[in-house]
Design a protein that fits this description.
8 helices; globular; TIM Barrel; alpha/beta; 19% strand; 217 residues
């Protein structure tokens, strides 16, 4: 299976995000992963729509915006207007998950749903028909540089199996958290099609090498 690499700008130099996005684009990234945190749903605070809009000016790649925020339904329009191509919300943060995913699609963006490590894949039971992407968190969200949670591999496999049973093979499974060249192949074999990595890419000898190592090259 072809795997897409989505570098997380959470690991970039925040004083030069535009340059980082340009360099990632040149280095062979498929998507740019943008982590949005509100200091409530997760214990960290990052960026808002104005920064997403600024990043949009620096790349033609899809902006994969991960909303780790409370009441994400209130922010869908703003992030879509800022340039988000994919909007992913957490199942744990949505009171009406079906409605929120439908709203994302109505804006023209792809709809994603994320699951924290302790959230069962059963939470997806009634929304498989509304998603374009499923994000499996392989660390507890909020900070970069955490260690990979091994049980995430089985969760990916179970979700991929269920998607196949439902005839929804085109839905992408994304994995975020502690992804490195040591576990990338295992995740892809389990059914992942998008790998998010921050520290692994930005700490590599070059961005291109970090991206290629996740592809097994």
């Amino acid at each position: 299976m072809f795997v897409q690499i989505a570098p997380s700008i959470l690991a970039a130099d925040f004083s030069a995000l535009g340059r980082a996005v340009e360099d990632l684009t040149t280095a062979g990234a498929d998507l740019i992963h943008v982590d949005v945190m509100d200091g409530h749903f997760v214990p960290n605070l990052t960026i808002g729509p104005p920064i997403v809009a600024a990043l949009r000016e620096h790349t033609s790649l899809p902006l994969d915006v991960h909303l780790m925020i409370e009441e994400p339904e209130r922010s869908i329009e703003a992030y879509r207007k800022a340039g988000a191509d994919i909007l992913t919300v957490h199942a744990e943060a949505c009171r009406h998950l079906n409605r929120t995913l439908a709203h994302i699609r109505e804006t023209g963006a792809e709809a994603g749903v994320a699951l924290n490590p302790a959230t069962s894949e059963q939470a997806l039971q009634y929304v498989y028909d509304l998603v374009d992407l499923i994000l499996v968190m392989s660390v507890n969200p909020g900070f970069g540089g955490q260690s990979f949670i091994g049980s995430s591999v089985n969760k990916v496999a179970q979700i991929r199996r269920r998607l196949s049973e439902l005839g929804r093979r085109s839905v992408r499974i994304e994995v975020d958290g502690g992804v490195t060249s040591l576990n990338a192949a295992t995740l892809v074999s389990a059914g992942a099609s998008v790998l998010v990595a921050g520290s692994h890419i930005f700490n590599a000898p070059s961005l291109g090498e970090g991206i290629r190592s996740l592809r097994g090259k």
